[in-house]
């Protein structure tokens, strides 16, 4: 017998009328139920921000997930909350990605817990804004070590294991849009992310013969406490609206990044290899196009401009 819950329907319709943005497709989970069932995924930096958002969705899709970073208390709290929220299996492992022995330990603990590992998501990062000439060499080191060395440490440890065990693997690297074009005031991060992009493309070719795919996502602005506190600190936050330079005039929602990541780590993307997928509402192209700044010209002024040109 088919029954309808009208109360529920009314509630949804009311929501649709009152707050259409809540119903936007990009805020909704995209893949079918159990799309990642049986997969084990390691997310570095998985206790906070975008790493946490991607982990949440992977668990909802049936994956087992190891989250790792330096702060065990943060990881354990997140793991417990996500177990409650999703009913999934989450392992929290302390690991500083700059230290190869800690990376090997994280890998081994994942295999002990889940019986294997299928996906490495290099998401851990460090960043802050500064004129480059103000940086000490240690400040440059700390960012490059977390982002580039951290990514290649994990990639090397996981790749060696997959190759030795004759198992396929999937690597997904979170870079930034400025990995391709560079950016002032975040030079260590831009330098390191460019290296991660090169790593992605190089190994996509070299390790394809072992059944290991490498792809990357280049996100534009997605609000997280970690990024916002370091890139838009108080005195700047009032002057810089991150959405203003995005042609779509909004920042990203975590679920839309999680949807893309879930696709790229799933077997549905089996023919994607060596790709970097930009998800930024058109932001970097807006900065790149010579005449994009003409967006500020009000429509009536174009009559005047055209007249002058034709004269
Ligand atoms: C100049 C700084 C600095 C700053 C630290 N240093 N902060 N220099 N300006 N704001 C210098 C220190 O003085 C020191 O050099 C060296 O850097 C190491 O600093 P520590 O504090 O000892 O390092 P550590 O405790 O390991 O912290 C690392 C960190 C921190 C990167 C500095 O911010 C962190 O833990 N970040 C992790 C999370 C994060 O950054 N998330 C944002 C990712 S956002 P000296 O010479 O004094 O010893 C992102 C998105 C980009 O990547 C795109 C957005 C659109
Ligand atoms: P975040 O919450 O600060 O995430 C960074 C994570 O990296 C934290 O969980 C941190 O945990 C971990 N980490 C830092 N150093 C580490 C180390 N040495 N070893 C292991 N883990 C370490 O910021 P986010 O915004 O979610 O960023 C996630 C990813 O998205 C990053 O790669 C970032 O570059 C990328 N990204 C973000 C945006 C954005 O707008 N948010 C845009 C483009 C790209 P611990 O402190 O516990 O170690």
Summarize it.
With 311 residues, the protein is of the alpha/beta class. 47% of the residues lie in helices and 12% in strands. The site of NADP nicotinamide-adenine-dinucleotide phosphate (NAP) has 29 residues, from helix 2, helix 5 and helix 8.
Features:
311 residues, alpha/beta, Rossmann fold, 7-stranded parallel sheet, 12 helices, binds hexanoyl-coenzyme A, SDR_fam, NAD(P)-bd_dom_sf, DECR2-like
Which range does the strand content fall in? 5-15%
Structural class: alpha/beta
- How far apart the termini lie comes to 76 Å
Counting structural domains, the number is 1
Widest sheet, order of strands = 3-2-1-4-5-6-7
Tell me the helix content: 40-55%
Give the low-confidence spans.
1-18
How many helical elements? 12
Gyration radius (Cα, Å) is 22 Å
What would you call the shape?
globular
Bound molecules: hexanoyl-coenzyme A, NADP nicotinamide-adenine-dinucleotide phosphate
Q: Please trace the helix and strand order, writing H or E for each element.
A: HEHEHEHEHEHHEHHHEHH
| Number of extended strands | 7
Sketch the major β-sheet: 7 strands, parallel
CATH architecture: 3-Layer(aba) Sandwich
Q: Under CATH, the topology is which?
A: Rossmann fold
Instruction: Summarize model confidence as the mean pLDDT.
Output: 93
In the CATH scheme, the class would be Alpha Beta
Tell me the quaternary state.
single chain
CATH homologous superfamily caption: NAD(P)-binding Rossmann-like Domain
InterPro entries: DECR2-like, NAD(P)-bd_dom_sf, SDR_fam
Organism: Hymenobacter cavernae
Keywords: NADP, Oxidoreductase
Protein name: Short-chain dehydrogenase
């Amino acid at each position: 017998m088919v029954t309808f819950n009208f109360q529920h329907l009314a509630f949804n319709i009311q929501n649709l009328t009152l707050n259409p943005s809540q119903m936007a497709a990009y805020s909704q989970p995209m893949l079918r139920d159990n799309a990642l069932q049986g997969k084990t995924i390691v997310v570095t930096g998985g206790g906070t921000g975008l790493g946490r958002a991607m982990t949440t969705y992977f668990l909802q899709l049936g994956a087992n997930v190891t989250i790792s970073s330096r702060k065990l208390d943060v990881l354990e709290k997140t793991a417990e909350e996500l177990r409650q929220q999703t009913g999934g299996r989450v392992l929290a492992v302390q690991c500083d990605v700059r230290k190869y022995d800690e990376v090997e330990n994280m890998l081994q603990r994942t295999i002990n817990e889940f019986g294997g590992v299928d996906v490495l998501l290099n998401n851990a990062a460090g960043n802050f804004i500064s004129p480059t000439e103000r940086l000490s060499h240690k400040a440059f080191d700390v960012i490059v070590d977390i982002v580039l060395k951290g990514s290649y440490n994990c990639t090397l440890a996981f790749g060696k294991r997959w190759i030795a065990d004759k198992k396929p693997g999937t690597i997904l690297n979170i870079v930034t849009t400025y990995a391709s074009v560079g950016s002032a005031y975040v030079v260590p991060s831009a330098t390191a992310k460019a290296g991660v992009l090169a790593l992605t493309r190089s190994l996509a070719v070299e390790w394809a013969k072992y059944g290991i795919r490498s792809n990357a996502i280049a996100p534009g602005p997605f609000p997280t406490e970690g990024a916002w506190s370091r890139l838009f600190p108080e005195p700047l936050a009032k002057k810089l609206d991150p959405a203003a330079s995005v042609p779509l005039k909004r920042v990203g929602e975590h679920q839309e990044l999680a949807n893309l990541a879930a696709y790229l780590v799933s077997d549905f993307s089996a023919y994607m290899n060596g790709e970097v997928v930009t998800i930024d509402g058109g932001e970097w192209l807006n900065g790149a196009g010579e005449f994009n700044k003409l967006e500020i010209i009000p429509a009536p002024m174009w009559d005047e401009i055209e007249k002058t040109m034709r004269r």
